[in-house]
Amino acid sequence: MTYAQNYKVDNTKLADDKMNVLRHLIKKQIKSAAKMGLLMSSIKVLFNSFKLFRNGVLSFITSFFEYFDYQLFIFFVLYGTFYQLTRFLLNEFHNETTQNSFLAGLVAGTAYYLSPRYYVFAYAFTTVIELLNDLCLSRMDQSSKLKQFVKNISWFKIFIYISIPTFGHWKIFKPWMLPKIMDRVFNNISNDRMSLGSRNYAKFILGI
Q1: Is the pTM of this model over 0.90?
Q2: What angle do CA 4, 93, 138 make, to 5 degrees?
């Protein structure tokens, strides 16, 4: 087998390994996010159907499906999937400048074309929490049971990451400043001629 053939085989195997890692990450994240979505939606159902519980189990089960927030559940699943996909793509870029330009294009492009302000906020918030979480874990004793517990409660971390948009969705409280500020910032970005390159770059990446 020639060097070129060996190189091609090695590259194919490497690509397959990376895709397997990506599939594993997404599958794991979907499970965690789905658990969190189920838990949060169930809590919301309990608030709405607690009185019906006294009328009987059948009434409670019926009201559970009636009040279950499928949009919230889907949001958790989609967020978890896209978050892992974004992290995987960023890890493929070893150059810091490339990573920054990718992020700039992704944020500017998605904000301008799709306006997912909560996704952008949640992604940034998630990154900060991840850094703080890693810092705390690094300071814990390696054999500590608390460290193992913190590492295993991914569903709880998801709750922390997305609590503000979720509570806003529940109308428990509204993070009213966040959408206004982000809309203003992204409006300035869209009017800035220098951002055209970032938007086109993101358009190319997203295929839209």
Answers
A1: no
A2: 120
